[in-house]
Specification:
Elements lengths: L11 H30 E2 L34 E4 L9 E4 L2 H15 L3 H11 L1 H25 L1 H15 L2 H12 L5 H9 L1 H20 L3 H20 L12 H12 L13 H5 L2 H30 L5 H31 L5 H23 L6 H15 L9 H5 L4 H16 L1 H9 L5 H18 L8
Parallel strand pairs: 1-3
Antiparallel strand pairs: 2-3
Helix pairs in contact: 1-7, 1-8, 1-9, 1-12, 2-5, 2-18, 3-4, 3-6, 3-17, 4-5, 4-6, 4-9, 6-17, 7-13, 8-9, 8-13, 12-13, 12-14, 12-17, 12-18, 12-19, 13-15, 14-15, 14-19
C-alpha cells in the first residue's frame, strides 16, 4: 500500500510515510479537539465553596462570575449562561468533575474493544479499506458531537465511545501495513515519523481550536477537524495500494529492494492463515510491551486529555493561550521521537548497540525521563513558562519510546504485526483510559494540591513500570 510517486521521483516508501503521517494528524485532530473544546463547553461548579481568586489570577484575561456557582449533582446536564459579552460563547454545560472526566475517557472505552479485530482484518484484507472506512466514520461522528453534547450526557458519551471503536482499529491496521512495506532496519525511523505525527495533530488542533472557539464558538472546534478528515479520506482512497506489488508506479529497483529485505524475515510475504494464540499469550516479551505501553499511554492520555484543564483551572490561562501552551509539549514529543529514531538507527546500523539493548534503552529514556518531569511539575506553582518547559522536556524524552517498545512487536512477529499491535493497544489503553477518570476524581476543585497528587501518581507509575522493560524481546 503506497501512494503514487510524486513527479515520478519520490520513492514510494517516502510518499507512503507522508500520506500515513497526514492521516495520523487527521485522526488526532478529531480525537483531541474535545480536550480544548470542553474547557469552553463545560462548567464544573466547585464542591467545597472554592473560588479561583487565588489560583494564578494574573494569567487570566477575565474571570466570569460563573465560577461562584455551586452544587451541580451527578445527574446534572444543564445549559447555563456564562455571563460573557455578546459575540462570545453564550452557553456552557454544567457537569461535575467526574462527569467531565468520564466524557474525556469515553473515547477509550470504545478504543480498547476493536484493536485486535482491526489488526486481524488488515492482515487478511489489507489496510486500505480498514483504515479508510474507520477514518470516514470518525469524521461523521465528529460532525455529530455538538448535537450530542447539547442533547444528553448519555448521547454525548455514546458518540465518543463509537468514535473510539472506529479509531481503535487504525494503529493495528497501520502496523500490518508497515510489515508489508518497510524493511526491518527502516522501521524505527518510519514508525517514529508516522506515529509521532500524532503530536503534530495535537500541535495543530489545540491552537486552531482555541482560535476557532474564540471566533465562532466551540461547535466549530468539531466541524473543522471533521472536514479535514473527510478531505484526507478522499486522498487516501485515490492514492493508496495495499502492497508494493500492487503499486503501478513504484520503480523496479525499489520493489526489488523491499522484496529482498522482507523475504529475509522468516515467513514474511505470506498471508497469515492461523494465529498461534498459545505462543502469543505465553510470550513474556509481548506482556512486557503491553505493560510498558499501558504505563506510557497513561502518561500521554493524562496530558492529551487533561493538560488544557490544568492550564485553565490552575494557571488560569485564556482559551487562546491555553491552547498554544498545551500544544508545545506535543511538538517537542514529535521532535524528540524523530531525533531518537535517527540516533537509534545509526547505533543499530553501525553495530554500536544491538537491537536487544536499543529497544530497552530507548523505552527507559522515554518512561523514566517523563516520569521525573511529572514529579516536578506539580510543585512549580504559577510559573507558566517553567511548567511548559518541563512538560516539553518530558515529552521530548517520551518520544524515545517509539524507537523502543513501540517497534518491538515488529521484531517479534512481523507476520502478525497487526494482531499483536491490536492486543498491545487494547491492553495498554484499557489501563490508560483510566487517566481522565482518575484525574477528574482527584481534581474536583482544580487546586494545585490536587494536581500535585495527579502528577505524582503518574510519575510513580512510569518510573516503577520501567522494571518490566528487561523482558522485551
Amino acid at each position: 500500500m503506497a501512494p503514487t510517486n510524486l513527479c515520478g521521483c519520490l520513492p514510494a516508501r517516502v510518499a507512503l510515510a507522508l500520506l500515513c503521517s497526514s492521516g495520523v494528524i487527521a485522526l488526532y485532530m478529531v480525537r483531541v479537539n474535545l480536550s480544548v473544546a470542553i474547557v469552553a463547553m463545560v462548567h464544573v461548579p466547585s464542591t467545597k465553596n472554592v473560588t479561583r481568586d487565588k489560583l494564578c489570577i494574573n494569567n487570566r484575561e477575565e474571570l466570569p462570575s460563573m465560577d461562584m456557582i455551586q452544587g451541580a449533582s451527578n445527574s446534572s446536564f444543564e445549559i447555563m449562561s456564562s455571563g460573557l459579552q455578546e459575540g462570545q460563547i453564550p452557553e456552557k454545560i454544567i457537569m461535575t468533575s467526574t462527569e467531565k472526566g468520564s466524557i474525556l475517557g469515553a473515547f477509550f472505552y470504545g478504543y480498547v474493544t476493536t484493536g485486535i479485530i482491526g489488526g486481524r482484518m488488515a492482515e487478511l484484507y489489507g489496510t486500505k479499506q480498514v483504515f479508510g472506512i474507520s477514518m470516514l466514520m470518525g469524521a461523521i461522528l465528529t460532525f455529530l458531537t455538538p448535537l450530542a453534547a447539547k442533547t444528553h450526557y448519555a448521547f454525548f458519551t455514546a458518540v465518543r465511545i463509537l468514535m473510539g471503536m472506529f479509531q481503535g482499529v487504525l494503529f493495528p491496521a497501520m502496523h500490518s501495513l508497515i510489515s508489508r512495506w518497510i524493511p526491518p532496519l527502516e522501521r524505527p525511523r518510519f514508525i517514529s515519523f508516522v506515529y509521532i505525527s500524532n503530536c503534530v495533530g495535537v500541535v495543530i488542533t489545540l491552537p486552531l481550536c482555541g482560535v476557532i472557539i474564540d471566533a465562532v464558538g466551540w461547535e466549530w472546534a468539531f466541524y473543522a477537524p471533521g472536514i479535514v478528515s473527510v478531505m484526507w479520506v478522499v486522498m487516501w482512497a485515490l492514492l493508496m495500494y495495499d502492497t508494493p506489488q500492487q503499486h503501478p508506479r513504484i520503480s523496479q529497483a525499489e520493489l526489488m529492494y523491499i522484496t529482498d529485505k522482507l523475504t529475509q524475515q522468516s515467513g514474511r510475504g505470506t498471508k497469515p492463515a492461523r494465529i498461534p494464540w498459545k505462543k502469543i499469550m505465553s510470550c513474556k516479551g509481548l506482556w512486557a510491551m503491553a505493560i510498558a505501553h499501558a504505563g506510557n499511554m497513561y502518561g500521554l492520555n493524562l496530558l492529551s486529555t487533561q493538560l488544557p484543564s490544568f492550564m485553565d483551572g490552575v494557571l488560569g490561562l485564556s482559551i487562546k493561550k491555553n491552547a498554544i501552551f498545551s500544544s508545545i509539549p506535543f511538538l517537542c514529543q514529535f521532535i524528540g521521537g524523530n531525533c531518537w529514531s535517527w540516533v537509534g538507527d545509526m547505533l543499530n546500523t553501525k553495530g554500536i548497540l544491538s537491537i536487544y539493548v536499543s529497544r530497552r534503552l530507548f523505552s527507559a529514556i522515554g518512561m523514566v525521563g517523563n516520569g521525573i518531569v511529572l514529579a516536578i511539575v506539580g510543585f512549580v506553582g504559577c510559573n507558566e513558562i517553567l511548567v511548559v518547559f518541563l512538560l516539553a522536556l518530558g515529552t521530548f524524552c517520551m518520544g524515545a519510546t517509539a524507537s523502543g517498545y513501540g517497534v518491538n512487536d515488529l521484531d517479534l512477529a512481523p507476520n502478525f504485526a497487526g494482531t499483536l499491535k491490536g492486543l498491545i493497544n487494547s491492553f495498554g489503553f484499557g489501563f490508560a483510559m483510566l487517566a481522565p477518570v482518575v484525574v477528574g476524581a482527584l481534581t474536583p476543585d482544580q487546586t494545585p494540591q490536587q494536581w500535585q497528587v495527579a502528577f505524582l501518581s503518574t510519575s510513580g507509575l512510569l518510573i516503577l513500570w520501567r522494571h518490566y522493560l528487561p523482558d522485551l524481546c
